[in-house]
Amino acid sequence: MKLLESLRNLLGDDVVLTGEHIPEKARSDASRTGRQLPMAYIRPRTVEEVSTTLRLCNSFRNPVVVQGGLTGLAGGANPDDQSIVIAMELLTGIQEIDTVAGTMTVMCGTVLEVAQQAAEVHGFRLPIDLGARGSCHIGGNLATNAGGIRVISSGMTRNNVLGLEAVLADGTVVSSLNRMEKNNCGYDLKQLFIGSEGTLGIITRAVIKLEPLPTHQVTALCALDGFDAVLTLLSQARKGVTGLSAFELMWGPFFRFSSRAIGVRTFETDCPFAVIIEQSGETTCMEELLGRMLEEEVISDALIAKSEAERDRFWLIREGLALTEFPDLIEFDVSLPMTVHDRYVTEVSAALNENLPDIHISAFGHVADGNIHLCVSAGTIDNHLKGWIADIVYDGVRKYQGSISAEHGIGTLKRAYLSYSRNVAEINLMRSIKRTLDPNGILNPGKII
Ligand SMILES: Cc1cc2nc3c(=O)[nH]c(=O)nc-3n(C[C@H](O)[C@H](O)[C@H](O)COP(=O)(O)OP(=O)(O)OC[C@H]3O[C@@H](n4cnc5c(N)ncnc54)[C@H](O)[C@@H]3O)c2cc1C
Q1: What is the CA(436)–ligand 1 centre distance, in A?
Q2: Ligand 1 in reach of 71 Cβ (< 6 A)
Q3: Which of 72, 280, 329, 330 is the most buried (most CB within 10 A)?
Q4: Options 3.40.50.920, 3.30.460.10, 3.20.20.80, 3.30.43.10; which CATH number does 3-87 get?
Q5: What pTM was estimated for this model as a whole?
Q6: Which CATH number applies to 94-212?
């Protein structure tokens, strides 16, 4: 019996979509680099249906691509026309919020924002937050080990997961839904799946730690004249601000472009750097810090949000949605030692400008975590030119011993550069873990390694 027939027999026609019933969105994640529709689009309603799908695909040696909210930016969820997509969109729901332990057990197709809101109803904050919150799934966040704007206070996604359940390539369900902070019984299996981009198993459920919901929040937008001043402000904020929950840097050209694009007026004069700094909790120390930093001329100007609407306007500038209007926008997501950030941006911009004087380069990022986002557009360009741009960006990362992917993962788009940030022994170990968990290589083939 053929694979599709077997899947239909066991799962039903409403779960196994083919032909014109496959949604267009299945072609690509948010990198817009995927071109093909999969052979079939499976929407399991239960963990058992995920297991059945994988068991069959494994016995037919058929490639499988997991799709979450499709907001990934590394091409990780892109299928080809021979693969079966397993879409997690129906595996949703909060299974439990334990208000004593401060944990949430959640199905992995749940949209991040839905999980955040559920936590808030119980007086908690989910420590994972990113711009794509309205579409990305908890499963996608785990599979990419998402970063975002709370890393400075809460760490990456992997720091906030206590347990998870994953389905292996052969259909085995490994339920490791630990709810305790302390559990040293052997290898920490969950960490294998977190950040594995759908190549080692399908994550179906997770236990996530919750934080107290802050009662006060203060958000300020600061103008700075030099990168040394940015580093001084960051080190003073780390020492002097309790509950520092965001420190986001925007290089001047991006700050001007994004503010103008959304019509938000801020400082009277142009500034080479702007920082959004946020404190959650007791708020007086932030105001004291800003007063002192103004006096010491570390910052040249500062605006403190007086309302939620004003705070949202600051964050809208940082989110830079206007960038999506650029044709063939390439979004790089690198991490580097903090002290070289400005040197790196200057050197890469100069190298790109030399050959492409009209190129648009926006730089911003979660700088306190070492993370810079570089968004580059040179108009509508071919793959050769895109490769040339990537070579320049990643050569700089290699030079400063940084990471070619701070947050978004490797997917297909950065695979060729993996050796810039991982050594041979590390890559060989990754390959042997992959072979052990997925001996037939059916899970997201061609991604990461
Ligand atoms: C506007 C915008 C802002 C963003 N901001 C940030 C940011 O600040 N920080 C950040 O880290 N990222 C950011 N991203 C990237 C993206 O949102 C994250 O990578 C997110 O975690 C992806 O989740 P998803 O559900 O959309 O995953 P998808 O795009 O569907 O998939 C991503 C990868 O995970 C795999 N996968 C998905 N679900 C599962 C599962 N249940 N089990 C196993 N594998 C799975 C897929 O196969 C693929 O390899 C942003 C993206 C956009 C569009």
Answers
A1: 25
A2: yes
A3: 72
A4: 3.30.43.10
A5: 0.94
A6: 3.30.465.10
Residue with the smallest CA separation from ligand 1 atom 50 is: 132
Please give the structure tokens belonging to residue 150: 């709370």
Give the other-Cβ count within 10 Å of 253's Cβ. Answer: 17
pLDDT digits (tens, 9 = 90+) for 322-377: 998 998 899 999 999 999 999 999 999 999 999 999 999 999 999 899 999 999 99
CA 402 to chain centre: 18
Q: How far is the CA of 28 from the centre of ligand 1 (A)?
A: 12
Integer Cα distance of 139 and 260 in angstroms: 35
Mutating to test ligand 1, I would choose from 67, 136, 141 the residue with most ligand atoms within 8 A of its C-beta, which is 136
Pick the CATH number of 326-425 from 3.30.450.20, 3.90.420.10, 3.30.70.2740, 3.30.460.10: 3.30.70.2740
Size of the chain in residues = 449
Q: Which atom of ligand 1 is nearest to the CA of 447?
A: 49
User: Cα of 88 to ligand 1 centre, how many Å?
Assistant: 13
Closest CA relative to residue 354, chosen from 322, 318, 378? 378
Domain ranges of the chain: 3-87, 94-212, 217-321, 326-425
